[in-house]
Amino acid sequence: MLTTFLIFFPLLAALLLFAFRPQSAKAIALGASIVEFSVSLIGVFTFDKTGGAQFMVNVPWIASAGIHFAVGMDGISLLLVLLTTLLVPFIILSSVESRYDKPHTFFGLILMMQMALVGVFTAADGFLFYIFWELALIPIYFICLIWGGDNRGKITFKFFVYTLAGSLFMLVALVYLYLQTPGSHSFDISALYAAGKALPASAQSIIFWGLFVAFAIKMPVFPFHTWQPDTYTVAPTQGTMLLSGIMLKMGIYGVIRWLVPVVPLGVAEWGSTALILSVIGIVYASCIALVQKDLKRLIAYSSIAHVGLIAAGTFTLSKIGIQGAVIQMLSHGIIVFALFFIVDIIAERAKTRSLSELGGIRNVAPILATVFIIVMLGSVALPLTSGFVGEFLLINSLVHYQIWIGAVAGLTMILGAVYMLTAFQKAMSGEVSYLATGFTDLTWNEKMVLYPIVVLIIAIGVYPAPLLAISEPAVNDLLLIISDVTAQIK
Amino acid sequence: MVSPDLLVSLVPLLPLLGFLLVALNVKKLSHGVTSFIACGSVLISFFISVYLFVVLQGLPEEQRFINVTVFDWISTAGFSAPFSFLIDPLSSLMLLIITGVGFLIHVYSIGYMHDDEGFNRFFSYLNLFVFFMLLLIMGSNYLLMFVGWEGVGLCSYLLIGFWFKNQNYNSAANKAFIMNRIGDLGLILGVVLIFVQFGSIQYADVLAKASAYSVGSEAITLITILLFVGAMGKSAQIPLYTWLPDAMAGPTPVSALIHAATMVTAGIYMVARNNVLYALSPASMNLILVVGLATALFAATIALTQNDIKKVLAYSTVSQLGLIFVALGVGAFSSGIFHMATHAFFKALLFLGAGSVIHALGGEQDIRNMGGLRKYLPVTFFTFLIGTLAISGIPPFAGFFSKDEILAHAFADGFAVWLIALIASLLTSFYMFRLFFLTFSGKERASHEVMHHIHESPKSITIPLIVLAILSAVGGFMGVPEALHGSNWLGEFLSPVFAPSASLLELHHLDHATEYVLMAVVIGLTLVMIAAAYFMYVSKNTVPVKEGQALNGIHQLVYNKYYIDELYNAVVVKPLYWISGKLETVVEKSGIDKLVHLSGSAVVEGGKATRWLQTGNIGFYIFAMVISIVALLAWVMINH
Q: How far is A230 from chain B (nearest CA, A)?
């Protein structure tokens, strides 16, 4: 019931916005998203910490085809749903209504997006998962296309086609698995797990690539990432937040839920390749971030580096790595959201994002500077910020996997500090540049968004135990599913 | 009676509260209230540290530790890092230094930062630093040490770039953070490997299981080398030392507290804390010894030629830290800690004295523009003299005893080790007296304008100088060697910490006769160096040449710090940016993305057969997709 509400309530709110085009669209959307968040909190507090999938709903949908409307949440799903329901109100609050033509459409699309995202994170039926997966693409595509920056037509087209192409591989893989299920076939997640596991290693390898390509594009993992910097840069800020804060987690979540347990032999065969690609991506994207001149684009590349570490840790298939991945998804979500918001604040006031033109903002906006520093520290994973917990667990898992890989992945600690500190110095420090004149410090509305985020970054960094406890049983279950297969290999 | 557990937690908590109070009200608080909160919190921590020290003294030797667990920090998947503290003789001694010297420097800063508009911000950073430094020392596991380790690095970054309008200072701050991060990567990899090997990162567990390893174990060698990489960064050893001289961009109290007395000694603490692991790895010990010797000598030669009063002291710090690593490298852990403690006293004193001079001269830092300040700044002069005598190793000042111990152990280890350490020490006395004479003796070289305003510093500055001068004068008596009929109290006090490694390392002990000869040789040569400095800078009144004037080859090389910064720039920084640029233009844009576009076009070409669908309008596709989904939903509902 709870899960169903979390999926359909935002849709309902979105449809109302589309239909009635009310004046205060932002306020209504914000209200709806806060209701949604509150309900998800009920979920967190009533969640049985001992684990297992909960809040299950399973009704036949297309019964003849073995398709069910089956949703529910284990700890991993719950945390990602929480991330979604937490970020959406902030994303809405961070937007300036007057900047958007047709605000009801804009906010309606954000809520539609939320519905699809919650659906992706809770679906327990392969077909349903696929529907939500594709459904998530549509609102974000329109958000980028209608309200994006220069050259948006071409760039969003590439984004759309690229990610859609990836999903088609996934569709083929899912349908193939479906046809392997016994009897009259079923898309039920456990049926698909069973079907996948029963396949020979060679077939599992093919399925692996079908699914992995879809997920890798979504994250994105090197070398499937070239749609990302342009799209992040051209998208309106709220679009970038949705893409980087939540949508990229669909890819990681896909790997955890719909790849590793589905084709364990395929993962055993090809997981190391995926892991190496992810680690290459960390260093590669960090290096490119070093030479970016546009602050927004720099953050976009930093996101590729961070997600590379998360993906690499996931593919160690270790408890510590997947736990690290889950907590880092939360942390990365709130940090990257805050970073893009800060970029937006700077760009709106100074009318540029170019690091060579900015400078000295710290003199005129000390509060913004302080918030920026704290968020930056989260991004470079300073201990006692949320970024450290995940990064440490992930690097830990990679060192266990293979020390040299851990060391290379650890370069993110150094390179991340280089590009973030340099960017901060150029944009914020020094004498006041001519652009910064008339630059005002954070407004009340901006503080409402950034202060809670700063508190969260530190709170999760100091006391991550409750979050780690929520996902731990789910990670155990996952590893249990693949344990007999990994044992067979040995 | 308050429980010791609570008291232990209060030690770091108070400076943290001080930080929060000041930082959250940075605009509102008056300077007076800020000073009260910031200094008060550290002072109470100091009192508690003294109390804990006394409590520890009262316990039987083998029970001299207090464990306090506050809460579970990161605990998942079989990994556990609690927020827990360990007070033992080593951490107790460090607590006294950090809170004691820290308090004095807080007080000093009231006077020094008096006119600065960032007064409150400065004190908030200072308190935050003390908090992290205390975590580093008190943490009872490697990860908590790492928290403090990175936290002090953050504060160092914030304070070096305190005057953020100056981009050179900001660059120095970035450099410090980034070079430390290189070391930190080594450290964190070492910590993870400890977890892999020992299944725990609590010091106590590692210590208990270490005995299962034999001397020369490869795993332990790898771990200890990685940990030492962290120490190279934090304690400014070759090759990661170049950030420390640049760090002098920060306000002078920061140089005294962070870049001389406390933070830079973190590497020493870490090695001492892991003495058992190091004792198991002769290769790591040799590495430490070689790096220490090289750094001690190399940095001392640079200090000979520098003209910025703070730069001389900075290179001196690098060199002295090198000397301490020599002690650790030969296995004389408690001697290293001893010199670290006395160095904290006299180097803090020297930096604060330098700050007093800079303050009096309105910001002047070049010793070529000083001279003859003795009569204008009597307190500064006198205390600075004590500091100079102490660092030079003149008995009975603090540095004599601690340096003597290191040299004696070096001699026992090998003549070459002793000789290099001796040369570094002798260079130290020369450049320190060069600095001293050029500043306080001879002609007055400052401009009339400057001399007109010159004044001795206020009490908040001179009192800390006097206290530190007393400590620098008598601090050595905590470790008077047996050869001089002392009991070496410090060595005894620390012995429980170093006992496990002592059984693995057989330290050679010198007979008393040899020790006397060594002492005489060292003192004699030191006096010769001081006389040489006197002859050159007082009798002959030599003043270092002005900027831009030609120097001879070697002098030019050393004056420019062997061009190491330029070398790093050419070998690391420039290539990194060049490669990154190429990655973007060649690999990213002309490579991967081209391929993506090509495959896209191929699909489009191939798809021409289905041209009737291609309206060319993406909106149409979306529309079609949405309609299909809606239709699907409708069909399902009707079917139910």
A: 11
